[in-house]
Design goal:
Elements: H1 2-8, H2 13-41, H3 47-76, H4 80-99, H5 109-115, H6 118-137, H7 147-158, H8 160-169, H9 183-213, H10 218-224, H11 226-246, H12 250-266, H13 276-303, H14 311-345, H15 364-367, H16 378-412
Amino acid sequence: MIGSIVFATATNMNIVVIGRLIKSFGAGGLDVLQTIILCDITTLKERPRWLGVIAVADAIGAVTGPFIGGVFAEKAGRPWLGWINLITGSITGLLAFFFLHLTPIECHIKDKVRQLDRYGFAFFTVIGTTVALPLSWANDLYTWGSWQTLVPLIIGLLLLVPFFFVEKRAALPMIPHWIFDNVSIITGTMSGFLYGFSMNAVLLYLPLFFQAVFLETPLEAARSTLPLCCLFVAMSIISSFIIDCTRKYRIVLWVGWSLTTIFLGLNYIIGAETSRAQTYAFQALLGAGLGTALVATMITVLASVRKVDDEGLAAGILVTVRFVGTLLGLAICSTVFSSTSSKGMSRIQNFPEQIAVLKDASQAVGFIPRLREIDVSEDIMQVVLGAYERSFQTVWVVLAAFSALAALLSVLTRENSLEKEEVGRQGFKAPPSEKPPTD
């Protein structure tokens, strides 16, 4: 909420970034904690239905965000993208304060702080920064072959070696290595990474696709993504109930990743001349695949954990690697988009003043809302729109390739039992005053 206030009252881009940074410190932790707490208060046997409930909440939030954002950006202005969080933050904060009752783990606060994996956190932060930054500026600020891109990227990858040894020696490691003792949890975690890579890129680029290729307003573009949003939410619910009823999750995982891969690939043929019926059908089935894979991936990981008290940790790791996948996915897709649009725009010899900013490929995404307003010759407009269309098509192909990798990994996943009834440390317990009935 503090970050949202800073964002809403920002007077320049630097303050906007600071506001978003503060907000991410809180929001990132909340996303991980909600999954950890859910796993700690339920048994694996009953968890599919409750993961379905939380997946519905996540899906509704993820898919309505672009629509609400489009409405506020077009009708109310940027500050309201921050003020709206004060309403939702206040409601959820009050609900957590009055109704979220957790069992404290007996340990002095100083001992808890002393046990934190400080070196692991530090290494992870440095690795994430040194890998993500060069990916984000490659081919925009600097070329792929420049030392500014290669040096930090190589350093980040090399730091994975000491990070592994630090985690092996930590009392309470950030990433507990003992969890990864079987093939299924490894492939499930990798699938989670690839899910973050694909889903958030789709949710970002699909509304932009409608704005750039079909010249829709932000609100119209958000409305055009409703087929994906509706099927995403619906299949999150349906897949959780299918797993709960059949007690099988591997076939659901296969179906989810297969649908995602096929229809990400088929999005390559969608363009300005494609009928809306075909466009909406393809994205709806893509949403069905993403919604199915969301629940199935989480169940795959949790069913593969040996000890009940490690299930919350495994869930937290899965959400974390999903975040990392999102970061790298958006960075790579941004590079692909800029590179492809630069090649397309190179056909224009003399840029008119209205589109002169497009000489810099890094400005292509930011220029999309202004495409409806420019007045240039028809030939130049066709080149510009064609460059945008090919850029989006290339992004879909890249995402389809990573989704295909996840589909292949799902084949290696084993079907583990969902009948475990052990309860974690936060399991519901009857109050001391309640005695069990006697004969």
